[in-house]
Amino acid sequence: MTIYRENPDQNLTGWPSGIKYIVGNEGCERFSFYGMNAILYIYCAFLFISSGMSEKDSANMAISTVHLFKTGVYALPMIGAIIADRLLGKYNTIIWLSVIYCLGHLALSLGENSLFGLYAGLSLIAIGSGGIKPCVSATVGDQFGKSNWHLLERVYQIFYFMINFGSFFAVLFIPLVQKWYGWKIAFFIPGVLMCIATILFFRGRKHFVHVPPKPGGYLGLLDAFSSILLFSVVGSLFITASLPLWVILVVSSIFFVSGLLLFFYRQRLAKDDGFLAVAIFIIKEWLLSSKKQKMLTVSSKGAAIGGFLGACSTANEKFGEEAVEGVKAVVRIMSVFIMVSVFWALFDQHASSWIRQAEMMNRHVYFPFLGSVELLSSQIPSLNPIMVMMLIPFWALCVEPSLKKIGIILTPLKKMTLGMSLASLSFLFVAWLQMRIDNLEIGQVAVLWQIIPYLLITISEVLVSITGLEFAYSQAPVRMKSTVMGFWLLTVAFGNVLVALLARFSALELKNFFLVFAGLMAITAALFAIRTANYHVRDYTQ
């Protein structure tokens, strides 16, 4: 049996040897995901029209389907994180779920022109892609020790650069493949890239730091199942949302009771100091505490994080300060993360409602040596990754150093606040564009106007998404890196649920649809600034 390193080299000041395999894996995996995603809206609309829907209903249903799929992709990371942290470890979780991911692409390809093939393929991709997301991003951070911890911000910038490198070529290339060779080949090629991604990650196994799951074995299995059942109390809503209320309540109640019974059975076998055990103990202590204790708002660092946590002084004695601090850290982080959901509701629309807008615009663009070329509407989102690849080095090498010279230091939370504000501006601009389109004939407004909102939303992405990845990892206790990454990705799921729900209101004109999100984002950015003004930052190194 091969023995892998469980801790990083604390004396290494340079780059860990496993990073190149993780970065290569991410580039190929992102090509596969965004290649499929680039044609997904058009494919869904085509299938729904073929099934007899009107053009307008098909467009709304396609937007809803795309965002419900992304909801699954970004909700399932919680389950992947739980399996990784408690049962299998990150490496094994990534390898096995990557195989499921490949099967999803195969189902889309072989199930061409079939609603069953669409739903089967998207379900498998959501399980595979969603499950590995928190594990891959946390594995990046696991490779760094104290001596090279300063490289963490840079590695997440490189990591994000590769995401967009793969995304750019996929969004540019796959729509053309679909046009020339049809849906089957267009969905097959992303599957090939996902297979290459899996092989790359497997080849890097001897170079990685493999943080073992805790507790693992039978207890880890019980932990994973009980946590998954409890998560499904909310997670089941993604499936049951359209059913009668009594059905929703019954299904959620079954998951809740089953999860609690399994959890208490596991605790009888061996006491646990994991997040769920400590959180339940603290809540119980708070409910039993006096009114005076409930009013206390104290943490180990003196930060205000919720009266019930400060009141539970006995939790430290029972579980130790580290375990209790882990629960406090998650509460602190989630109080920040929950507001980022609205940002994701805006950002992910460049692959749905913004494509819908591009369909109504004049897409003839003049290129030197090529003349006038009509772009496909599904190619327009390639603006986002190419801008990201230019903005990441420009921001890191030019903007931030220039700001520091004049005494302006942008903390991670200030960057995220600025990014949210810019996202709101981008939607005001697409709403203005839609007003122009509505006032003129279809095809009169040049698609090049979309460059401006794409630039705004891309700067916003660099400030919110990259910063959020680094922030999520650094603020998470060592034992909960994957889980906190799962919470970060869960904010993306909530954002996509919001879009999917609003897309069902077909009476809402596209212009008003954009304005609703612009207003929501502006309000959320203000609330985010207020919440984070007194946030106490604490780094947890590996």
Give the structure's gist in a few sentences:
With 542 residues, this protein is mainly α. Helices cover 73% and strands 1% of the residues.
Explain what you see:
By secondary structure, the chain is an all-alpha fold. Helix content is 73%, strand content 1%. It is built from 22 helices and 2 strands. It has helices at 19-50, 55-75, 77-88, 90-110, 115-142, 152-181, 183-203, 217-235, 237-240, 245-269, 275-288, 291-294, 307-311, 313-319, 321-337, 340-347, 353-359, 383-405, 412-439, 451-474, 481-503, 510-532, and strands at 364-367, 371-374. Strands 1-2 form a two-stranded antiparallel ribbon. β1 and β2 form a beta hairpin. α6 (152-181) runs antiparallel to α7 and α16 crosses α21. Residues 292-306 have low confidence and may be disordered.
Question: Secondary structure elements and their pairing?
Answer:
Elements: H1 19-50, H2 55-75, H3 77-88, H4 90-110, H5 115-142, H6 152-181, H7 183-203, H8 217-235, H9 237-240, H10 245-269, H11 275-288, H12 291-294, H13 307-311, H14 313-319, H15 321-337, H16 340-347, H17 353-359, E1 364-367, E2 371-374, H18 383-405, H19 412-439, H20 451-474, H21 481-503, H22 510-532
Antiparallel strand pairs: 1-2
